[in-house]
Amino acid sequence: MPAKSAKSGPRTIVIIVYDNVKLLDVTGPIQVFSDARDGDRSNAYEVSVVSVAGGVVSTDTVVALDTLNAEIITDADTVIVAGGVGALHARYSPGLKKVVTELGRSARRVCSICLGAFVLAEAGALNGKRATTHWMHSDRLARDYSSVTVTDDEIFVTDGRVWTSAGVTAGIDMALALVEEDLGRLEALRIARLLVLPMKRLGGQNQYSSVLRAHTKSTIGRFDALLQAIRTEPANDYSVPTMAAFANMSERNFARLFTADIGVSPSLYVEQTRVEAAREALTLGNRRMKSLAAEFGFGSEENMRRAFKRRLGITPSNIVSQFTSTKR
Length: 328
Fold this sequence. Notes:
By secondary structure, the chain is of the alpha/beta class. The protein is built from 15 helices and ten strands.
């Protein structure tokens, strides 16, 4: 059953921000909540954007946010801490911790988007909880807050009344899930259709970050030309002997240095790159599986299916049904 509002009128959503917040972490969920309607077609939510002192707050873009002083908020059904690199500094603000603690104490749900998890963790809201954040910072969250069980591959995580979401657009996924909990699946699906979004993304963060994660480990750049070649022409022969010759190295030295620089073996990197490229092509629609398998170097549809399962935990068919169905 959809959750009922504790009182008549729209449910109150309070989004907490701070300087250098990521704009999309704020505006994405706001759009979802603003489009939501109760059964009588009235606005289902009343959204407030607050900060410790109120007034104008900077974002990671040229657009600033005009915020309310958090002290004027006396009741919140759902509290959401937005993300952005500013969270890594703002989390230590006594004023911000006080706002999160006081608003979260009586709220039905306490949530974070992306790096907002660091703010919740610093305020103690994630103690003993499972949580997630952007995959690039999940190790740091686990290191800084040992009482939090961090997962780096889920789009969002719920643990009791605490919800945390992964990077940036995952906040929209979480907002849709919050709407579904409150208003039911049909309303959440209506909003997803309106915003041209999948109702629920299959798989986790790794389907978007596996190749990028490998790239961030490379700081020397000695394999940049090879990596570019693999990305540009993924169907070519990328056996270890071929790649070693491309890099003008012995096979043994190439395999050792590549793994040290990139963080994965050469064969794994090639497979990850092919999967990422094929996944992107599938999201565009109107592509036959057999042609994709050949175009991206898998050799056969079955090889492609197995590679998708290994790397993404989902199959090409899952992606087709998720992104290209006309019955949305």
